[in-house]
Write a structure and sequence with these properties.
By secondary structure, the chain is an alpha+beta fold. The protein folds into three domains: 59 residues, 434 Repressor (Amino-terminal Domain) (Orthogonal Bundle); 72 residues, no CATH class; 99 residues, no CATH class. It is 36% helix and 20% strand. α6 packs across α7. The protein is globular.
Length: 254
């Protein structure tokens, strides 16, 4: 799609007139009109405002083909999985799993490698082959090249350790000890739990990245424990295969 068509489509899909859009990004209506006819493009500061307003990356606004990969895990970056800075704006270098709300979620390359291999391995791409591929790829990515510069001196890892200690202190019957927490995007783990009144309610935000894990029950059987947490709460549930028949075990404010 041409740049002028992108501006027109985003504006009209948002139900804004040229005048209304102009006021929101502090330009004239004539400037918006010129964008939509392809005569000019917004300056850098205006592109940032438009990116935040329409919740898309600057590359998308400029019609740049999306051929980027996450500079932490190597995943192809599509618009819907781009990570977010603290102010909510898109960060075009990382996915939601590796960078959430201005925080890098991985500080150990081996931990990330194991997570990636677990999701990549298949009959067509055996685990051994996936592991060799990721071992070669990860050190080449910007995050790991600049880890000393980008890292937070272990603050996030300390937060995760504290969270793990809090979860294990709950001593949930049948739930094994939590050893690690991984980044999980709400969209993929936002189960709807049945309430006493018969309604089923999801507790999470689809667009937010949480910390969590899945654990096999010590009681055996097909049900697993699911653990999710962030700075505000701890949630523990059980469910059958593919997240079926979820039951809320505990929801605790921190």
């Amino acid at each position: 799609m041409n740049t002028e068509n992108i501006f027109y489509t985003l504006r009209t899909n948002s139900g804004l007139s040229q005048d209304e859009l102009a006021k929101k990004v502090f330009v004239t209506r004539q400037a918006v009109s010129r964008w939509e006819t392809g005569e000019t493009v917004p300056n850098t500061e205006t592109l940032k405002l438009l990116s935040e307003l329409f919740d898309v990356s600057i590359n998308t606004l400029l019609g740049v083909p999306q051929k980027r990969i996450c500079q932490c895990c190597g995943m192809p970056l599509e618009e819907e999985i781009v990570g977010r800075n603290k102010d909510g704006t898109p960060n075009e270098d990382y996915c939601k799993w590796c960078y959430a709300d201005g925080t890098y979620t991985y500080s150990d390359m081996d931990d990330l490698l194991e997570v990636c291999v677990r999701h990549m391995a298949s009959e067509a791409f055996p685990e051994e082959q996936a592991r060799a591929y990721m071992k070669q790829l990860l050190p080449q990515l910007d995050y790991w090249k600049k880890y000393k510069e980008l890292g937070d001196n272990g603050e996030f890892e300390q937060f995760k350790k504290k969270l793990i200690d809090e979860i294990n202190a709950l001593q949930i019957d049948g739930m094994p000890k939590v050893e690690k927490l991984n980044a999980l995007v709400g969209k993929y783990v936002n189960l709807a739990y049945p309430l006493p009144n018969g309604t089923a309610v999801p507790f999470l935000d689809d667009g937010t990245t949480y910390l969590g894990t899945q654990l096999e029950s010590e009681f055996g059987g097909e049900r697993c424990f699911g653990v999710l947490a962030n700075m505000d709460f701890i949630l523990i549930c059980t469910y059958a295969a593919q997240g079926a028949d979820p039951e809320l075990v505990l929801y605790k404010k921190r």
